[in-house]
Task: inverse folding
């Protein structure tokens, strides 16, 4: 079992075996924030900090009959002592964490998180009613609001979907342009339907432009820098000219929204066609624009 799932089960255990979905997310967030190791990443969601990965893990654990989901809560079903399955440091930390925070539940717990981590309240639908005027102003100050035209490129290799989405939020990206040929991934959160749901629920529009992708067959046997250069030369000389309409549509999206990000898989943009798409966009762009590879 993944260690992070043991953390989830042990957290439920120390808090009496059942937690509301909101409380569980907040406790998990605070436990992550209190330690030196991050088990889950979080994004600012409609009720504050939220980890899609933790929710997916809980759904998986329910299939193994370890937890049970109701409309508003998660309940531990297995009687195993999951706290003892953690290493000594995490066991001590989680026990101390319970002693520090168990008195906070519901709106008091949410308010505590919003006060201490205002960035995670920027998309909250309840922040204004839970916080006082000054605290709510602090939340608004944490909401990115950047001016000017910008084109970013971003790969999701080695990133959680929450980490990836936070990078977009912090740069005030308005549209995520997926330029993979096939918007499918074995990595949780990065297939088209999942990714669209996640980013659009934090205010970022998602569009898929498969015409600007590269078919998987051309990506086989890329073993050297020269192999990549040949692939990208073909992309620039053939694929982009053959899909001029798609590039022009991308340019329209950019002009209308000012701040966009081009996404694909590779962490290093030098080994991804998105760097060439950025170059092609720059050639037709008449706006003073910041280009940056995240």
Result:
């Amino acid at each position: 079992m993944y260690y992070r799932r043991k953390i989830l089960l042990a957290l439920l255990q120390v808090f009496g075996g059942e937690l509301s979905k909101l409380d569980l997310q907040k406790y998990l967030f605070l436990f992550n924030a209190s330690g030196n190791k991050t088990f889950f990443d979080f994004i600012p969601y409609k009720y504050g900090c939220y980890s899609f990965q933790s929710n997916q893990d809980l759904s998986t654990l329910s299939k193994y009959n370890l937890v049970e989901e109701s409309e508003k809560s998660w309940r531990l079903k297995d009687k195993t002592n999951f706290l003892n399955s953690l290493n000594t440091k995490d066991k001590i930390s989680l026990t101390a964490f319970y002693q520090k925070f168990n008195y906070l539940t519901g709106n008091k717990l949410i308010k505590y998180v919003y006060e201490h981590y205002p960035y995670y309240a920027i998309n909250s639908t309840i922040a204004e009613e839970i916080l006082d005027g000054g605290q709510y102003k602090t939340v608004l100050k944490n909401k990115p609001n950047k001016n000017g035209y910008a084109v970013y490129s971003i790969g999701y290799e080695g990133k959680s979907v929450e980490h990836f989405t936070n990078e977009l939020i912090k740069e005030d990206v308005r549209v995520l342009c997926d330029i993979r040929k096939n918007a499918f991934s074995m990595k949780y959160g990065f297939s088209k339907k999942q990714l669209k749901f996640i980013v659009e629920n934090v205010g970022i529009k998602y569009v898929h432009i498969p015409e600007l992708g590269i078919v998987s067959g051309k990506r086989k046997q890329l073993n050297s820098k020269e192999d990549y250069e040949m692939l990208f030369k073909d992309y620039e000389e053939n694929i982009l000219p053959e899909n001029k309409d798609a590039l022009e549509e991308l340019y329209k999206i950019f002009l209308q929204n000012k701040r966009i990000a081009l996404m694909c898989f590779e962490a290093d943009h030098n080994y991804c066609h998105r760097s060439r798409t950025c170059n092609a966009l720059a050639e037709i762009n008449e706006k003073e624009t910041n280009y940056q590879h995240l």
Notes: The two ends are 32 Å apart (CA to CA). The mean pLDDT is 95. Residues 3-141 form one domain. The chain has two domains: 3-141, 149-293.
